[in-house]
Amino acid sequence: MSSLTGQLVEVTPMRAAIARRMAESQATVPHFYVSTEVSTAAVEEHLALVSASTGGRLGITAALVRACAIALHENRSFNAVWGDEGLLEVTDVNIGV
Question: What is the distance between the alpha carbons of residues 25 and 40, in angstroms, rounded to a whole number?
């Protein structure tokens, strides 16, 4: 966590125990994943209008990454990392695709 910048958040002993157990669970317990389908028609229409007006081409992935980045920036508690020192709300928003 030393390369990350942000604000270290004080957590209760209960929250620390939950975070520790969740980290252990990720490494030791089998996982399952849930998926769903959503309509992207409205987003695709908007992207088509933006692409036409700018002369560029924007895809659904760019819209999704932008929406995620905005959400993480506005909701700092979701952009956090648990480590030995505690919970670090990370300053930067970095999304890898």
Answer: 34
Residues 16-75: tens digit of each pLDDT: 888 888 888 877 877 778 999 999 999 999 999 999 999 888 899 989 999 999 999 999
Residue 23: its pLDDT value, please? Answer: 82
What's the pLDDT tens digit per position in 77-95? 888 888 778 888 888 999 9
- The token pair that represents 95 in the structure block: 């999304």
Rounded to 5°, the CA angle 71-75-79 comes to 90
pTM: 0.60
Burial class (CB in 10 A: 0-12, 13-18, 19+), 22: exposed
Provide the phi-psi class of 39: left if phi over 0, else alpha when psi is between -120 and 50, else beta.
Answer: beta
Report the SS3 class of residue 92.
Answer: coil
